[in-house]
Design brief:
Distance between the termini: 66 Å
Bound molecules: S-adenosylmethionine
Strand content: 5-15%
Structural class: alpha/beta
Number of domains: 2
Helix content: 40-55%
Radius of gyration: 22 Å
Shape: globular
Largest sheet: 7 strands, mixed
Number of strands: 9
CATH class of the largest domain: Alpha Beta
CATH topology of the largest domain: Rossmann fold
Length: about 350
Amino acid sequence: MATSPTRPEDEPGDLATRLMDQAMGHYFSAALRTAARLRIADRLAAGPRTPEQLAAATDTHAPHLRRVLRYLAASGIFREDASGAYQLTPIAHQLRTDVPHSLHPAVMMITDELFLRTSAGLTEAVRHGDAAFERLFGAPFFAHLQSDPAKRELFDNGMASLASPADDAVAAAYPFPATGTVVDVGGGRGGLLRAVLRHHPDLTGVLFDLAPPLAHHLLDTDDLKGRWRTQEGDFFASVPQGGDVYVLKHVLHDWPDDACRRILRTCRAAMADGSRLVVVDCVLPPGNAPHFGKTLDVTVLAIFDGRERNADEFAALLSAGGFRLTRVLPTAAFPSIVEAVAE
Ligand SMILES: C[S@@+](CC[C@H](N)C(=O)[O-])C[C@H]1O[C@@H](n2cnc3c(N)ncnc32)[C@H](O)[C@@H]1O
């Protein structure tokens, strides 16, 4: 009788290795952070470099650096050539600081102790059904950042970097009107608004957020002169009136349902009947297939007691806030676009 081929991942030894490799994922984050801190990708931009050359340029220990690079290369981040020199790969290219859509600030943010300490509090968050962050740092995330401007800047730069590929994807995927005003609520440094205004030359925009990200926003460019303004405020109290389209990008996922309903009602109060709300967040698919939204979901759970949602959960939330979900559009990046109309 023919036996069915045994898949390597079914072999007990390999299963054990796989589990342990996953359990040691924090060392992978640490290796990635080391490469980002030492700006290894920038140093490989001109061509391959040996670990000795990289160590000399970064004042580090060459044999240790080589082992960290070998570990990263096993996951496709950097590649060792036949001479023992390391070179960039497409994924490592995104770690350069001087390229469009650089993810260097996002990696520096997400591997910072702000997030590492919070991940270590995940079990307690699961035990109590709340955010790990507040228990560890003594205040909710955004309140804590108020008292630590350096971390606030790390977060704003990290978010702008993480969001950058999605900003263009959303501006391209969503049929914004040709004219009128887009209000980006909790718009951070304004990367999305900048992309939208560039795609639609007759639109104007309002960037609404707390003061810190507005202080170093991205809208002050020659091509966008006279087409935007910033407004500081609290989206639990009020948001600017008179917009034609309102955007909430990676805002609702920061909050539990009751807080989201409050934000939605504040937006609804500023909006005319029939005007559109564009929510940009992950929309979780059913099933167990890998999806970046599931990684992000556990992250926002621990940091904010926030959550990523599926389409039905968005429909219910929007309905409670005075909106009707009209459609969900995919983008070329990880988030989707959830369109709703003010009823
Ligand atoms: C996860 S970031 C998303 C930023 C941006 N929309 C993006 O996609 O990159 C959430 C934003 O909500 C802002 N925010 C938090 N609480 C706020 C409040 N009470 N009022 C206004 N903005 C707030 C934060 O300052 C931050 O810029």
